[in-house]
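Supplementary Data S3. Sequence and structure tokens for construct A.
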Amino acid sequence: MLRAAFGASFLVPLAFSACIEPGYPLAPNGQVDIRVHVAGSLFAADTLDEAGKPVLPRQQPSETGVTLFLAEGGAPAYGGFVTVRVDPPEALVLGPYPDETDPSCHEVEGAFRCTASSEGYARFMVSSQSDWSGSASILVSWAEQTKEEPITILPAGLPDSATNFTMLVAGLDESLDGARVLPTFLALKCTVGPLPDDLGSKWRPGAIRSREAFVRATPPSNAPGVVENAPVIVESLFSEAALSTSSDCADRKTRLRVLLGSTGESERFFLCFSDIGGEADFAVTSGQKQIDPGPKVLVDPEPRLLRVRALQSVVGTGTGTGEEVDLFEVSAFDVNRVRLAMPVDLRVDDDQLLTIDQASVTLDKEPTPATVIPATPKSPGQVRLHVTPRLLSSPDCASDPISIVEAP
């Protein structure tokens, strides 16, 4: 019985000593110096996955090491420990320093504790693991003292110190009005009669006009790596323009997120334009930067129908005075059956029978009256008016024939 009791008497203090954490609370007269390894701001996450974790790749720096120096009476406070927290708590996550086999900072009883080494140092990491941005603080507490170190977390994207932020668009035609997207006339059909009820879709599958584009920026000289993986949001502010990652524009969006590469240029994407046309405005933003004024592209409507009507079926040659007669009416229409302006070339089958004074004209758009083409009958016969898009040979839209007869 005595041996058993004697053995048991040693078990209690041994078990108790195994739960004791090494070190001691830093004294009230202790000093703490805080040094943040990254000079500058951290970046918040741009997007989070379903588990609330940042989606990779992401913009750097998103984390930094922090070194504490603990001292008492001018000497390293070997074994002294302090408590570390972040305000607000959602701003940053505290963690042990990755290169330490025996971490000097870790969580103890629900608090993050840092214990000084024999040289007085303790190290830990702070990282942004959410899309929260703003001004935060690292708070180091011991006895009844607290020391604060501010840290700024910027929203993901370009900092204000970045320069030359712009969007470049390829394949635009320059005019006096600005950069334009010209019509292709590939969907243009001819008619001599009334308009069909349906002229098709304004977004023609496989034939949507698109232009390749990309965004670029120059990083600040003191932080050349901050542009890599910086997100840029491109938005279409015009109902007849969209964005896509493919040139066929089969999958169109009004808002597109792209990432800048290590050189400051984004991956290529495409601006998509419907056949209605108009003034397409885009908004481009990234973090603290915005292109102002935003990019603008003028898009000419895509004509769908060219109508060439003969106003008379028979006309006399007149009395030889060479008087002009209104013989034709020419109009161009968009997919919504709205008359639009369009430059065209004009010719007749035989200018010995009929002459027109103009070889080209710009057709009138609504609400002005339709364009009337006058001509001078000269000799008996049959003749038609041919109309083509300016400087193109097709489609060749011809009117019904007009018979020219000798006047009584």
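Construct B, processed identically:
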Amino acid sequence: MTFPGSARTETVMGIPMNVDIRTALPRRELDPMIDNAFAWLRWVERTFSHTDEDGQIARLNDGRTIEQIPELVEVLHRCDELSEATDGWFDARINGRIDVSGYIKGWALERLSRALSNAGAVDHRISAGGDVRVRGSALPGRPWRIGIRDPRTGAVRRQVFANDLGVATTGGTRVVDPRTGTPQRALGSVTVLGPDLSTADAFATAMYAMGPVRARLFAHELASAEPYESLLITRAGRTMSTPGFAAYATPAALAG
């Protein structure tokens, strides 16, 4: 099937990132738009790296002079807010070092999505690893469909349908308990849906670090106070979700 618009995948932050624009715009507008999208993502990669010695986070960790970048202040402030909101389970400061990797990918995609909409590309999907931001329609009259995979088998366990949504999925041993520094091993993955991808990403990271008991309680408390719904998949394959999650998703076998 031929789709309107244009799509491209490039490796940024060490993972494939995809920008898929479905708005029917002229090629003379689409090509520069996608070029600028990846230029933005690479700027974020350079600026917020904690491993690249020239990155602003690395410089900050080493006590070196940093550039006065408004986005850097914004990200650090928001990470502090989310640390407080999760009682420290999401924390960008561990062992005296700053690492915003649990937030910055979702933030970059969220900011890019807004920029694309403002530029006229109102129908798009941006994805990077477990983070997906969609707006508009995949095709006229059809919402976007996002698959949530089983962390053990890779099979799609749920299909999420949406026209304007951030979907953040966190899993793997890279997420640790910020209080002990040890990897969390009881959950397979946590998916959070909501209006802001960067916030959903931080909440998913926090819940994954909590483990299944605390995460389930936090997910229900979050859904009662904020427009964020969650799906937890344990390493044994059991799923737990907040009631509102069903409004977006169906089991893969029923999705057609």
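The longest helix spans residues 27-48. The chain has one domain: 6-255.
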